[in-house]
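2024-03-11 09:14:02 DEBUG pipeline.ingest accepted 1 chain
2024-03-11 09:14:02 DEBUG pipeline.ingest length=260
2024-03-11 09:14:03 DEBUG pipeline.predict start
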Amino acid sequence: MVSLEEEILKRYAQKSEEPSSAAGGEGKETASLEDMILGGDAASDGPEEREAPEEDILERYTSEDPESVEAPEPVAEPSPGGDEEMTPGEDLEIDALAIERPAPAMEPRRGPPAMPASPEEVVETLRRLREDVGQISELSAEEENIVAAFSLAFLKLMEPLTKALPVDVSVLPRELGLVERANVVPKGDLVLLYADGRMESVDLTERDNRDLLITVVSDVMPRFNNLISQRRDKIEERITFLSSVTRELQTIADSFETVG
């Protein structure tokens, strides 16, 4: 592509070859070309200022050969602030990309392979198992004795106090069903009254009902303690009353003896 200075020099060479009519005309042409090249800097020292001829030359140049002028490159405008929120559509596109990209599969950690137990270890395990079974048998026999002693003591203490102790039905296991009322009788049975009118009795001393025995005893022991306290208070009240009455009666009896 031809530059502006080359085009000016080319035109100057063409004009210099043509015959001129007068020397003054040649000087004028030379001065005008110099002004075009230098941009009017040399002529600006005169008393009158002249306009720079670059604009006219550039206008003629662009009108004759518009394709020779390079179009200015478009300046990219700054994008909006990076802190602006994304639209819902952009969020969905990002989410879709995140879903399409599968996460790298992680291989499960494998520990060292289990080594088979040696014959010595097997024998030692069986020995410990035999000891545990022996202890279970001893503990079961001791539990039987304790439960029997508990039932006898509970019977002896409960008979003079009350005929039945109420049990909170909320502590009973769900396997018993929809129980409306529950009571413990002195012989150690749990009497259950259902909403449909049925009544059942559960022997708490049986081996299968040991956990239920612990639950029931934990619930009724505070009530049992209150019964004993109430019984003591009643006895004290009776003693106080009878002592006062007895003293008065003795005084009256002594008075009759004196009169008689």
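2024-03-11 09:14:41 DEBUG pipeline.report Residues 19-31, 36-55, 61-69, 78-83 have pLDDT under 50 and may be disordered.
2024-03-11 09:14:41 DEBUG pipeline.predict end
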